[in-house]
Amino acid sequence: MPLYEYYCSDCQAKFELLVSHQHADGVVCMKCQSEKVRRLLSVFASQRGSSEDSSYNDMAPSMGGGSCGCGGGGCGCH
Ligand SMILES: [Zn+2]
Fold first, then answer.
1. Three-state SS sequence of the chain
2. Rounded to the nearest whole angstrom, what is the distance from the C-alpha of residue 13 to the centroid of ligand 1?
3. What domain of life is recorded for the organism (predicted)?
4. Residues spanned by the domain of 16
5. Could you tell me the distance, in angstroms and rounded to a whole number, from the CA of residue 57 to the centre of ligand 1?
């Protein structure tokens, strides 16, 4: 399962979770259980920093359609 980093807009906590695509939309904050969490770019992508274009291209195939948040196929973007 992929590792995602989340940010809670209620308590400003950042945390990482291993989640499947099916559960990616049901994540709550580990500290305050708020549902106001945002999924950040992957740890790998954020560490690259200055090379956003190349990192995006590298990520796209391995994301398997999950980059749009639809979980694959549901949104017609693939
Ligand atoms: Zn929180």
1. CCEEEEEECCCCCEEEEECCHHHHHHCCCCCCCCCCEEECCCHHHHHHCCCHHHHHHHHHHHHCCHHHCCCCCCCCCC
2. 6
3. Bacteria
4. 3-62
5. 32
**What is the tens place of the pLDDT at every residue in 33-73?**
999 999 886 655 445 555 555 555 566 565 555 556 666 66
The domain tally of the chain equals: 1
Residue 9 Cα to ligand 1 middle (Å): 7
CATH number at residue 42: 2.20.28
pLDDT at 34: 96
